[in-house]
Write a structure and sequence with these properties.
The protein is α+β, with helices and mostly antiparallel strands. About 30% of the residues lie in helices and about 15% in strands. The chain starts with about 35 loop residues before the first helix and ends in a 15-residue tail after the last strand.
């Protein structure tokens, strides 16, 4: 739910790269005033008709996302009523579309919620490194429409990272050893289908522990936690060897699946520049894991990995002489200075004015936006290693996370089965785990985590704001909005427009002769009532 609280003072401007400004108050968002809402509402019908005429129909889930966004945060479609328990002041809270690909507010909630859940309830206090891989353009088309290719790339990449970290931690995986006794990393992968320039670019981000977990020794007791073996620092030679192994294994998989022939595979293996890019420059240590730093905390790194495909504040429009949106400008993010690990990496420019700009027409922008909407019922992040849902050590490892420290005595350790029930023996006294969903975090708590003051706090008296009702009937909605002075009708959606034509150049062919059609002012007036 995205709140639309009435009565909060204006929110001050964000301070770039310096964290949230002090003493900020939550302000109701008004999506109908943003450039994105105006672009979609004025061009959606025309764009859908244009795609149909071009025999490129828009998928149904994309159209549903776009139409759902036009209703997100608009009070006339329904809202919740809230009341301050101290002074009795009333507030209204607009409903959200709960979309996954278009709405910036809902995407922001998913981003903050995913990062908060991983930090609090999944990742224990160990060093974490981000791994990013992109493949040559020749293979990206297969990743775009073949889930099996994405799964193969993810599995190969995670296996090679685990192999490297195991060797860097001084342990080797015995192929004859049982799966439960092998050293495993803990990782979360994020599939990105977009680039920074609103382009379709399928690549993978992985946040993995900087080391491996090994089960507790036999006889250590059921309360013993698995041991974590930290890895030594990763150098460029390690990264080059990993990239080469991933390259050969991925090309071999495409060859076995007959997506590439033998000649094409041999050609790619002979490339001087392989086109496979692996970056591992970002590492979160225990010292700065939970500090409120914009670039170095684990939660901000996870927000970056779970971020939406575009940023609303970088979007602007320019209108033509007819008042219609003519061009759309999207400002690219400025590269930050950093020490990169990997070949051919150097410090990027940080001088003012170094940003790039993408200039698009409304239809081009909607085309790119449609390509970036994720398919329905597809996970956008997955768990690997000891974080995997069915791994024997998952409960024991995740019980060490910050949000689970108080529940550690109730967690099932690695000595038990993966079904969540304690076995007979020393743990008979343990209470059964209560079923709770830690991935769903209250909206107000998320707003407080991203830098706002607690939004469910009355700006007048500081009392608690409580939800008392949800208004969905048209009659009460109109009465309350009339009393509050809010619009009773949603922002208008422009109908489909015909293609622009120049009357002076329009030519018709009839009886092998060129007939020039007259301008509208020269056509005779016709009285429709006489017909």
């Amino acid at each position: 739910m995205v709140a639309a609280l009435r009565g909060f003072p204006a929110r001050p401007r964000l301070r770039p790269h310096a964290g949230p400004a002090p003493s900020r108050r939550y302000e109701r968002r008004r999506p109908e005033k943003t450039p994105l809402h105006k672009i979609i509402s004025e061009n959606l019908a025309s764009w859908l008709e244009w795609r149909d005429e071009a025999e490129r129909p828009v998928p149904g889930y994309v159209e549903d996302e776009l139409r759902g966004y036009l209703e997100c945060g608009i009070l006339c479609f329904g809202f919740g009523r809230a009341l301050c328990t101290g002074c009795g002041q009333g507030f209204v809270i607009a409903f959200s579309c709960k979309g996954r690909g278009v709405c910036p507010s809902c995407n922001g909630r998913h981003m903050a919620q995913t990062a908060a859940h991983l930090v609090d309830h999944v990742i224990p206090p160990v060093p974490v490194r981000q791994w990013v891989i992109s493949v040559p353009k020749r293979l990206r088309g297969f990743l775009a429409d073949r889930p099996a290719a994405v799964a193969a790339l993810t599995g190969i990449f995670i296996e090679e990272i685990e192999r490297l970290l195991g060797a860097a931690a001084g342990v080797t995986s015995d192929a004859c050893a049982p799966a439960a006794a092998r050293p495993r990393l803990g990782a979360v992968s994020f599939l990105h289908r977009f680039g920074s320039a609103l382009n379709h670019h399928v690549h993978l981000h992985v946040c993995a522990t900087e080391g491996v977990f090994v089960p507790a020794a036999d006889g250590a007791g059921c309360d013993a936690s698995p041991a974590f073996l930290p890895a030594r620092p990763i150098n460029q030679a390690d990264l080059a060897a990993l990239t080469e192994r991933v390259r050969r294994r991925v090309i071999r998989w495409f060859l076995m699946q007959r997506l590439l022939d033998a000649a094409a595979a041999a050609d790619m293996l002979a490339w001087e520049n392989s086109g496979f890019s692996v970056d591992a420059s970002v590492r979160i240590t225990l010292i700065n894991r939970d500090v409120p730093s914009y670039f170095q905390s684990l939660e901000h790194l996870l927000r970056y990995c779970a971020r939406p495909p575009f940023a609303l504040e970088r979007l602007s429009v320019s209108r033509g002489a007819d008042g219609q949106i003519a061009r759309i400008r999207y400002v690219l993010p400025r590269h930050k200075a950093a020490n990169w690990v990997g070949p051919n990496r150097s410090r990027k420019s940080t001088r003012p004015g170094a940003n790039g700009v993408v200039d698009l027409s409304p239809f081009e922008f909607l085309d790119r936006l449609a390509d970036l909407v994720p398919p329905p019922r597809k996970h956008r992040h997955r768990y690997h290693g000891v974080f995997a849902p069915n791994h024997k050590l998952r409960r024991a490892v995740t019980s060490l996370a910050i949000g689970n420290v108080g529940k550690r005595q109730e967690a099932v350790t690695g000595g038990h089965g993966g079904d969540g029930h304690a076995t007979e023996g020393c743990c008979d006294a343990h209470q059964k785990l209560r079923s709770h969903d830690t991935s769903r975090i209250a909206w107000a708590k998320l707003m407080a985590r991203v830098g706002e003051e607690f939004p469910l706090e009355c700006p007048g008296c500081g009392g608690d704001i409580r939800l008392i009702a949800f208004i969905t009937e048209p009659g009460p909605i109109r009465k309350i909005l009339t009393h509050l002075g809010e619009p009773l009708e949603p922002p208008p959606i422009s109908p489909a427009r015909g293609p622009p034509t120049d009357w002076g150049e329009l030519v018709q062919v009839h009886d092998d002769r060129d007939v020039f059609q007259s301008a509208p002012d020269e056509l005779p007036a016709i009285d429709i009532h006489s017909l």
